């Protein structure tokens, strides 16, 4: 029964991964996200950029489909999600697992120690950068009123255009309240971001990628978030300055942008 | 002093002339003068409404007119929802010199200020429990406030608060409005939806029938029901805001709403969505029914229904939650609920996608149960029926109207069968039928053999 399957997504994921392994990468893979120019909020944009970078790094072809209702369409309620044949997979980690199951792997020649180190860095990004982005986008008074809420509500007619952003803000506030980020000041948040960048900068050092000469999913994740912080113009943008203070991270973003995105455009 | 529980007296006709004789009193010609009207037991009801209602009594000139008018006043006051019970006492005015003077006393019982209850509700193939709180006659002029919570079998949850008010103290003209929230799931289409809305409704009679004019502003949040929901339905997930004006006209000349034996029904519905919001379409629907009694309590019933909608702008699509669906045990029998018409084809049992036009018709022959057990009592709630029903659901291309109409006429689905109908109260019915689908199209979800249905709307 449909209802039973939806109640245990893990089983479905395992099932999808199993089936997926036997099929090649179809030609009509689609990545769904909100409209990049008018609608998407920058934390979501960072997630989408990470997934796109990861897929490009794997050398996989896909088409980006922009939908105003991408968030509601997604099986997990979060963007981005990819539509591969009969499967829908949302968010970076499940997408990585799905792509790996199809035989595309960026980290096949890494040792177990390196892999768990990479995982540790990835969860640091999740727990610091993602929360910092949400804090700035939704809890900072100026940014949320001037940028985030109008963008989030733009596809809808009044009064949904103000009700839906308020509802989303409430959800984000509840999430940040449960992990203790809600009561931080902007200075504390900046300090967290600085620590995170410091750690990343030290790991990267002068290498082209975080783990030597080949890209990994950590590179995709870091690029997605740092590039978004560097390029999003906000009325209050303390994060861009923080990232700029680490020249090797800024150079890393530029390098990946040129290698995987400028090429794609040509 | 006698109590007159007034009944409308039969008018004297040529065939039934008032009889002459010393014992017979010609009520029609007894002159009266209503000197005083007393209403006893009034609490929160406002004087101006009562005065307005009883005023015509003072103009009564004959005894018969007085009795008849008193009865009308009683009925109107009860219909307005002012009083629970109204008793009428007519007496001669005691302290009057004039012997034709009368005094009319209404003994009224008001409603308790608040009442509550729990009911079971039957929807179309769905049952739910309803908890309600009622404030009758809350402001003293027949205003009613009604709060409800429904909890249904198919994950349906609803809350509503409605207020209604008779306009101009006329019980037939009712203005009502309210707010509601409703959550339901639609497994045949693979989605669930939460509706939050406001509505305002004006119901009024005209010489032709009853009209209802309703504005509805509703925020609808549609989501996929499960991971197996087809992508065609998933694409429609999200928020929409519908602001629509709907006019329903009903001319019901039948002797009964559930198992009529004679009379006809005409129901016309027009809906225009697009007064703000982001849902824009216009929708027309028609329902016709004729009933004719034959010999031995056999009734023949012919019904026809149809509907068409179109988006206001050519390039727009109509959302799945506004489209028409067809099929089910009380409408197009022999097919699963909403089982006719376009389905998504990416699953073994695809999701019903609905369409922008439909028509269906049905012919029934109703007879009492064989050998008529329980005649005059319980048995009269049952009928057996033989039926043939058919119809089609499809999209109309307005650039090729003739071709589309031809398609709608060609791909007919039809089924025939036999079964038992049970009337449930005054609004719902239950059917157990044996159905043989005769014409089916690819993609339809068919239900041959025994089919059970329960619900409010049927054809």
From TrEMBL, chain A:
GO biological process, one term: mitochondrion organization
GO CC terms: SAM complex
Coiled coil, from the record: none
SUPFAM superfamilies documented for this protein: GST C-terminal domain-like
UniProt xrefs under Gene3D superfamilies: 1.20.1050.10
CDD domains membership: GST_C_Metaxin2
Domain GST C-terminal residue range list: 111-266
Protein name: GST C-terminal domain-containing protein
UniProtKB/TrEMBL annotation, chain B:
Keyword Isomerase attached: no
Major place of residence: mitochondrion
Presence of keyword Membrane: yes
Region annotated Disordered, chain positions: 1-24
A GO CC term attached to the entry: mitochondrial outer membrane
UniProt-listed Pfam families: Omp85
Coiled-coil stretches: none
Keywords, comma-separated and alphabetical: Membrane, Mitochondrion, Mitochondrion outer membrane, Transmembrane, Transmembrane beta strand
Protein's membrane topology: Multi-pass membrane protein
Membrane spanning stretches: none
Domain POTRA: 32-109
Compartment(s) where it occurs, according to its Swiss-Prot or TrEMBL record: Mitochondrion outer membrane
Biological process according to GO: mitochondrial respiratory chain complex assembly; protein insertion into mitochondrial outer membrane
Similarity field: Belongs to the SAM50/omp85 family.
Protein name: POTRA domain-containing protein
Organism: Littorina saxatilis
């Amino acid at each position: 029964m449909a209802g039973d399957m939806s109640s245990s997504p893990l089983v479905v994921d395992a099932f999808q991964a199993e089936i997926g392994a036997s099929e090649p990468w179809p030609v009509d893979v689609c990545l769904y996200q909100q409209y990049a120019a008018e609608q998407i909020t920058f934390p979501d944009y960072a997630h989408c950029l990470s997934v796109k970078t990861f897929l490009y790094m794997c050398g996989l072809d896909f088409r980006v489909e922009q939908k105003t209702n991408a968030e509601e369409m997604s099986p997990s309620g979060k963007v981005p999600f990819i539509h591969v044949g009969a499967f829908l997979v949302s968010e970076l980690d499940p997408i990585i697992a799905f792509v790996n199951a199809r035989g595309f792997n960026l980290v096949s020649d890494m040792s177990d120690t390196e892999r768990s180190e990479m995982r540790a860095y990835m969860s640091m990004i999740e727990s610091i950068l993602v929360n910092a982005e949400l804090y700035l986008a939704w809890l900072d008074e100026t940014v949320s009123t001037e940028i985030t809420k109008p963008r989030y509500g733009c596809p809808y007619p009044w009064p949904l255009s103000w009700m839906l952003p308020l509802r989303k803000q409430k959800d984000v506030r509840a999430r940040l309240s449960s992990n203790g980020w809600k009561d931080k000041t902007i200075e504390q948040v900046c300090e967290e971001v600085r620590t995170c960048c410091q750690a990343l900068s030290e790991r990267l050092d002068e290498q082209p990628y975080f783990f030597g000469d080949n890209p990994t999913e950590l590179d995709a994740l870091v690029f997605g978030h740092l590039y978004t912080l560097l390029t999003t113009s906000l009325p209050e943008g303390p994060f861009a300055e923080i990232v700029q203070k680490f020249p090797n991270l800024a150079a890393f973003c530029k390098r990946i942008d040129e290698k995987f995105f400028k090429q794609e455009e040509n | 002093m006698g109590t007159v529980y007034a009944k409308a007296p039969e008018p004297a006709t040529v065939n039934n002339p008032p009889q002459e004789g010393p014992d017979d009193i010609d009520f029609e010609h007894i002159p009266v003068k209503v000197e005083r009207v007393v209403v006893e037991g009034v609490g929160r009801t406002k004087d101006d409404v009562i005065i307005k209602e009883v005023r015509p009594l003072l103009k009564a000139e004959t005894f018969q007119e007085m009795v008849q008018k008193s009865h009308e006043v009683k009925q109107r006051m009860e219909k307005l929802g002012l009083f629970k019970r109204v008793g009428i006492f007519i007496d001669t005015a005691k302290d009057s010199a004039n012997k034709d003077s009368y005094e009319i006393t209404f003994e009224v019982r008001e409603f308790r200020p608040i009442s509550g209850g729990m009911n079971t509700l039957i929807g179309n193939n769905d049952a739910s429990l309803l908890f309600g709180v009622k404030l009758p006659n809350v402001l003293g002029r027949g205003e009613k406030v009604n709060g409800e919570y429904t909890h249904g079998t198919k994950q349906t949850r609803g809350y509503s608060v409605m207020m209604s008010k008779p306009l101009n103290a006329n019980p037939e003209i009712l203005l009502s409005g309210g707010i509601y929230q409703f959550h339901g799931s639609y497994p045949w289409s693979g989605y669930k939806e939460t509706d939050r809305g406001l509505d305002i409704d004006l119901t009024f009679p005209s010489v032709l029938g009853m009209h209802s004019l309703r504005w509805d502003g509703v925020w609808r949040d549609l989501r996929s029901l499960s991971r197996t929901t087809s992508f065609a339905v998933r694409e429609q997930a999200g928020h929409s805001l519908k602001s629509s004006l709907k006019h329903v006209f009903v001319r019901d000349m039948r002797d009964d709403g559930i198992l009529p034996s004679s009379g006809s029904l005409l129901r016309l519905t027009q809906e225009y969505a697009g007064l703000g919001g982001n849902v824009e379409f216009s929708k027309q629907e028609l329902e016709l029914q004729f009933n004719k009694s034959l010999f031995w309590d056999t009734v023949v019933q012919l019904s026809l229904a149809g509907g068409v909608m179109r988006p206001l702008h050519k390039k727009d699509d109509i959302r799945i939650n506004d489209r028409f669906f067809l099929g089910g045990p009380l409408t197009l029998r022999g097919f699963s609920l909403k089982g006719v018409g376009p389905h998504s084809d990416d699953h073994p049992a695809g999701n019903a996608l609905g369409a922008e036009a439909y028509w269906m018709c049905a012919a029934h022959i109703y007879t009492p149960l064989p050998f008529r057990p329980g005649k005059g009592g319980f048995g009269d709630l049952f009928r057996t029926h033989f039926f043939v029903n058919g119809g089609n659901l499809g999209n109309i291309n307005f650039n090729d109207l003739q071709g589309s109409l031809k398609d709608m006429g060609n791909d007919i689905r039809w089924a025939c069968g036999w079964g038992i109908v049970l009337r449930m109260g005054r609004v719902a019915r239950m059917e157990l039928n044996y159905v043989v689908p005769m014409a089916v199209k690819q993609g339809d979800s068919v239900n041959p053999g025994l089919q059970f249905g329960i619900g409010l709307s049927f054809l």
